[in-house]
Specification:
single chain; 269 residues; alpha/beta; Rossmann fold; 7-stranded mixed beta sheet; binds S-adenosylmethionine
Length: 269
Amino acid sequence: MVWFFEYYDGCGLAIKVKKKLYEAEGVQKVEIYETESMGKMLVIDGKIQLTELDEPFYHEMLVHVPMLSHENPRKVAVIGGGDGGALREVLKHNVERAVLVDIDRNVIDLSRKFLKIDHGAFEDERVEIAIMDGKEFLRDCEIFDVIIVDSTDPVGVSDTLFDREFFELARQKCDVISLQSQSPLIQKEYFRTLLVNSAPFERRDVYLSCVPTYPLALWSFIIGGEYDFSNLEERFERIKGTTVHYNPDVHRAAFALPEWLKKEVEACI
Ligand code: SAM
């Protein structure tokens, strides 16, 4: 019996593994596993990035919350997200152009070959792929309606996606941004840093999803910019029937924060 363990701060998660499908060392160490009960699993530098079982709880909330909070998102950039899950969700909308910017070609190539959660997104004619650092991309890129940041933890190569300069650049390049903002329970420092550094988006809010294979399951996101939730039901018609997790009720409920978290957010915004 083989188990994969991910350790957090004084606790962790164990997942039973059937076999390792591939491992590659490059910009990052990328591993893909077949698990006993959670489908395939992507691990980068020892940290679980997704399992097939719960990735929709993450990707659908990361993508549809900003996309349906914008009147008509036609041009979208996904920064990070080399597994293709966020891109898959973006393409459910009536977009004319989607650019995926990932620093590590291995993540894209191995995900396409072994995970296949992109459901053909990488072959879609509306998609362009840029292999580079997300902050460098923002310096010279066009203006997007929505930018979605699907990054790894803010250590190593993803550092650049968490600093103030990144958000200053992003503010000039989109109407609405969404980003994953880590566990507010066990990764408080990362969470606070993101809330503070995203200040160039003067209007911003925190929302939540349950992602069981992320540290302690409670996962946070930040949305910033000119978002509006007024026509969610009508806008949902654009993608109705394509989601397994997202709907307008879940969207609104995700912004209901418990008292301890409200205090955290108020202290940083
Ligand atoms: N949200 C998932 C998580 O936290 O577990 C992450 C999923 S996705 C696989 C993260 C992607 O961000 C990886 O493919 C990684 O290569 C990419 N990435 C990390 N730093 C980056 C950077 N500076 N610019 C662009 N992409 C980056």
